[in-house]
Amino acid sequence: MIFEDSRICTTVPTKIVGPIRMNYEFRNGELVHVPLATFEIPIWSAVKRGAQVSQKTDGIGVVVVDDRMSRAILLEASDVGNAIRCQRWIESNFGPIADIVSRTSRFAKLMDIHIENVGRLLYVRLSMETGNASGHNMVTKAADVAANVIMENCDHIKYVAVSGNYCTDKKNSAVNGILGRGKRVSAEIIVTDNLCRSLLKTSPEALVNLNVKKNFIGSILSGGVRTANAHFANVALAMYLATGQDAANIVEASQGITQADFDGTNLYFSVNIFNMIVGTVGNGKGLDFAVENLKLLKCYPEDPSSSKRLAAIIASAVLCAELSLLAAQTNAGELVRAHMKLERN
Length: 345
Description:
Layout: E1 14-24, E2 27-37, H1 42-55, E3 60-77, H2 80-92, H3 94-104, E4 109-118, E5 121-129, H4 136-153, E6 157-161, H5 175-179, E7 182-192, H6 193-199, H7 204-222, H8 232-242, H9 250-253, E8 256-262, E9 266-276, H10 288-296, H11 306-329, H12 334-343
Parallel strand pairs: 1-3
Antiparallel strand pairs: 1-2, 3-5, 3-6, 3-7, 4-5, 7-9, 8-9
Helix pairs in contact: 1-11, 3-4, 8-11
């Protein structure tokens, strides 16, 4: 019997894969080994093959485009008139609200406020910088304080929830991709025609064709929300588990777009992840395995940009696996054979 207050150790198979040749900030051509914790063993081989491709090119170029965390408080007015008056007060008092937010944490900095009005309801979405933390607790604390200040300054306004689902936390949504939540990261690689055929065992034309018909048209038919990719979630989750991240945020990290073009000489391939929520400090990051894996990645918590570096590395690994899987699926039976060989033994 396992009692309510007892703890057990759950082990996830983990392997160090690579190295991936990555160009991020001023470290051009850096070779990075990545820890992948997963029960889907073929993920290791997919990232490995993509890493081998990166080693034979100029590398994977990565840019962290944006970085923010959000929390949307939900308030209710006595009527729509008071709701709009409150909205206008919030919009005209960004500075004072930002000052209040900054007092709740030395790392919290208000970036913007977006408000949606539904009748007498106000959904007030606060976006903040949160340093190296993923920022869940930080933005919730700040939003709670901001809600009290708003209610003190606006008549006939009452509290409904500190999170009104317009954040949006751990749920599929369009708003995160549009306004941002977590780190927005783009990674790209250029692969020659010869390298594509020799190492990926496919042609650039076949890969581009599959990306359009599978990732784009298939995702539209399925009703995908701001997403067109093959399996971002597989690698993102494997690295989340290996580095002590909140695994439920894989919902946001799975949203993104894979782009592939061929100019007759080179294949251009990119992955664009809109909402990667990761940190190098906070809950889970102090566990022994997480500490060791973050050291391996040179994502030191004392480095103020280490969470961005972690996001860049994860995006590089996602690109490696995405490139390998799409290449495999251009060849009938290859994916099934790989899974049968690696997982059935």
